[in-house]
Amino acid sequence: MNATKAENGFNWQRMVLKLYPFFVLGLLLIFFGVLTKGTLFSSRNIKNILESSFQYLIGCMAALFIFAQGEQDFSMASNIALSAILAAMISKTSVPLALVVALVSGIAVGCACGFLYARLPIPVFFLTMCIANVIAGFLGPMTNYQSVKTPVSMLNLDNTNLKLLVAVIFAVIIYVIYNKTTYGKYSRAIGASPVVARLSGINLSRYKFAAFVFTGIAAGIVAFFSICKSGGASKATGTMFHFNVMVAMALGGATTGGPKVKFRCAVIGPLIISVLTLGMNLARIPVGMQNLMKGVLFLAVMVLSDRLSRFDVD
């Protein structure tokens, strides 16, 4: 009987750990739906939720691999700013070329981070923070401390349907790589135990390098669509992006590395962030209180995940 109770308790805690992001999203939708008297569910606000989720969906899906390895990329914000500025400069000559430049710039920074991460015995936190600061130091002089404007025609690319198409294509590619290939499997193995992964013959340097290539691609995509939306770029473009990705992944259930980092974490997390932010804005909650609510929710999720982290989730 005791064994049965223990087994039932085990299954219950596994289920909570697996589904709590969906519970959080559901509770937020109900709470702000009531608080805003249904305004949250208008077609315009649903569109706003999808719009605001786009960049974090891209960022979180690309960051799946590095999160699975138990690390984070703190250079994404600076990478986005650099890629956006370069793309904005080139956009006056050619818009398609601006997209290419944004992707090349993002991937180049990602490769630099990945190479140093794979080769140097430096904690990834300090490494990516240093690279972010180095890039940030160049952005001001590069733009003469002013915004770089883009052609007005680029605003036409700030299209919800286009963003949804890009997000779906990107999601399918990442899903297949993360769940159906050895790269995703080995990334989770590295996060579970780097020592065991190395002894198993996994080339850690190769997989660590590739993880930053994905975040570099995401930085390029986000940078391009950022200038399409804002009509320009500055050193402030992408500010705190890496932190918001980290929070979104945590709220989606990816609080530790290894097998617990699921693809769904990169989808549900950005939706939670978007619903929470839009709901608080519609309810006219002061900015200070918004930060407090976000902090409390983030802390609650971290505590819950820590308490249940010893249980594996299928």
Give your account of this protein's structure.
The protein is mainly alpha-helical and 314 residues long. The protein has a domain at 43-239. 75% of the residues lie in helices and 1% in strands. The protein contains twelve helices and two strands, in the order αααααβααααβααα. The protein has helices at residues 2-35, 43-68, 76-91, 95-119, 124-143, 160-180, 182-192, 194-199, 204-230, 241-251, 265-282, 287-308, and strands at 148-149, 232-233. A two-stranded antiparallel ribbon has the order 1-2. α2 packs parallel to α6 (160-180), α2 (43-68) packs antiparallel against α11 (265-282) and α7 packs across α9. The longest helix has 34 residues, at 2-35. Mean pLDDT is 86; it is low at 1-9.
List the helices and strands and how they pair.
Blueprint: H1 2-35, H2 43-68, H3 76-91, H4 95-119, H5 124-143, E1 148-149, H6 160-180, H7 182-192, H8 194-199, H9 204-230, E2 232-233, H10 241-251, H11 265-282, H12 287-308
Antiparallel strand pairs: 1-2
Helix pairs in contact: 1-11, 2-6, 2-7, 2-9, 2-10, 2-11, 3-4, 3-5, 3-9, 4-9, 6-7, 7-9, 10-11
Features:
314 residues, mainly alpha, two-stranded antiparallel ribbon, 12 helices
In brief:
The protein is built from 12 helices and 2 strands, in the order H-H-H-H-H-E-H-H-H-H-E-H-H-H.
> Approximately how much beta-strand content do the residues carry?
under 5%
Flag low-confidence runs.
1-9
Read across the widest sheet, the strand sequence of neighbours is: 1-2
* Number of separate helices: 12
State the end-to-end distance. 25 Å
Number of strands: 2
Structural class: mainly alpha
- From the spread of the alpha carbons, the general shape counts as globular
